[in-house]
Design brief:
The chain is α/β, with parallel strands linked by helices. It has 2 domains: 40-188 and 376-406, Medium-chain alcohol dehydrogenases, catalytic domain (Quinone Oxidoreductase, Chain A, domain 1, Alpha-Beta Complex); 201-349, NAD(P)-binding Rossmann-like Domain (Rossmann fold, 3-Layer(aba) Sandwich), CATH 3.40.50. The chain is 29% helix and 25% strand. Strands 3, 5, 6, 7, 8, 9, 16 and 17 form an 8-stranded mixed β-sheet that branches. Strand 1 (40-48) and strand 2 form a beta hairpin. The protein is globular, with a radius of gyration of 26 Å.
Length: 408
């Protein structure tokens, strides 16, 4: 076969062109699968105190400013338990659950990113925070950093039932995140850590409240008492350790929880059941704090008498942060002269959190795990939605630490 130089040049050119074309063509990939939304969803409805019913509801179409989430799991909070026992907020019938997380199924046309600017799409793992407060709320209007004190603060799982939307809480298979809500994409976190973000925001807020008090150290050399080693108390210990506090005293009556407190950063453990009363406990704390008492005390029990006792454990010029009383547990007696005035005690309250503290919460959890604090181990029990009654009973019996309900 006779091939001219012209033919050779043409063939070589075609081969080179083909190679270059192959290099510039993008590789073909399979399309990303997106979750399929169901038409109905089961939800655990609190119909009256101590009575939960699994009901099935239609899933309405979402609006352009809303997101449909397929729930994965939700922690049982102490507030859920209070609602379960007595409906203190008068919400029944309603779907509880606010420590939850799930997978995005549908995103409204107007939503492009989460509350910190991350792009959001179907398949992303997210957590939600608060709905916006009313434009008429003067506290939120004139001091946005205090919007958590708004009288009309709304939290998912603590909302009344609505005729066109029953999926207002995480104890369900699906939930609708409505317009005005803050939400965060957290794809790089385990489901256990995601279920801890909401309670972690509570302790991050408490830490900032305490740090806002000038003149009282809260640093490497501070001596701090954490009173109560339930889920919030244990996270309080972890956030203090993560923030650099090296002298933490955990106070509780449950030996198992005290050992967990040690793993999460407590240096000293006090089981109050081993002492005859607050006088002996106060002497023990003084022996651990150079005879002076703690610089700071965080009250995380929700028991009124515990709040009254805490003043006895704090040194003159120290501070107390009240974190535990999210519902009205009653009153306690203190001596204003002895407990506050003569010691110049600084007392600060801490009420839930602001939505902008959610990023601090999930970064705290990630940092805690990196430095060896096993915060994800706080999730000790998991129950399917059908067994939510048992989940509440385990919580009431204090058999675990963080009980989680999975939407399965």
């Amino acid at each position: 076969m006779n091939i001219s130089e012209k033919d050779i040049s043409r063939i070589v050119g075609e081969v080179i062109a083909g190679v270059n074309t192959a290099r510039t063509q993008p590789a073909t990939t399979a399309p990303i699968a997106t979750p399929t939304a169901a038409k109905t969803a089961r939800a655990a409805v609190l119909v009256e105190p101590r009575k939960l019913e699994i009901r099935e509801f239609p899933i309405r179409e979402i609006g352009p400013d809303e997101i449909l989430v397929k729930v994965e799991a939700c922690g049982v909070c102490g507030t859920d338990v209070h609602c379960y026992k007595s409906d203190p907020f008068g919400l029944t019938p309603n779907v509880l659950g606010h420590e939850g997380t799930g997978e995005v199924v549908q995103v409204g046309a107007k939503i492009k990113m989460d509350s910190v600017g991350k792009a959001v799409k179907p398949g992303d793992k997210i957590v939600t925070s608060l709905l916006e407060t009313s434009p008429d709320c003067l506290i939120a209007k004139y001091n946005p950093a205090k919007s958590n004190l708004s009288d009309d603060l709304k939290v998912y799982g603590l909302l009344p039932d609505e005729p066109n939307n029953h999926l207002n809480g995480y104890f369900a298979e699906y939930m609708i995140i409505r317009a005005g809500s803050s939400f965060f994409v957290v794809n790089d976190m385990s489901v256990e850590l995601r279920c801890l973000i909401e309670p972690a925001a509570v302790v991050c807020h408490a830490l900032e409240r305490a740090k806002s008090c000038s003149g009282i150290p809260l640093n490497f050399r501070s001596r701090v008492v954490v009173q109560g080693c339930g889920p919030i108390g244990l996270l309080m210990i972890a956030v203090l350790r993560t923030a650099g506090v090296n002298n933490i005293i955990a106070l509780d009556g449950n030996p198992s929880r005290l050992e967990t407190a040690r793993r999460l950063g407590a240096d000293e453990l006090i089981n109050y059941k081993e002492y005859s009363g607050i006088d002996e406990i106060a002497e023990k704390v003084k022996s651990l704090t150079k005879g002076l008492g703690a610089h700071w005390g965080f009250q995380v029990t929700g028991v009124p008498v515990a709040h009254a006792n805490l003043y006895r454990l704090i040194r003159r010029g120290g501070g107390i942060c009240e974190v535990g009383h999210f519902v009205d547990g009653g009153e306690c007696a203190i001596n204003p002269h002895r407990d506050i005035c003569s010691k110049e005690i600084t007392l600060v309250g801490s009420w839930v959190y602001n939505s902008f503290e959610y990023p601090s919460a999930y970064h705290f959890l990630q940092r805690a795990e990196r430095i060896g604090l096993p915060v994800s181990s706080l999730v000790t029990h998991k129950f399917p939605l059908d067994q939510i009654d048992e989940a509440f009973q385990v919580n009431l019996r204090q058999e675990g630490i963080k009980v989680v309900v999975e939407a399965r």
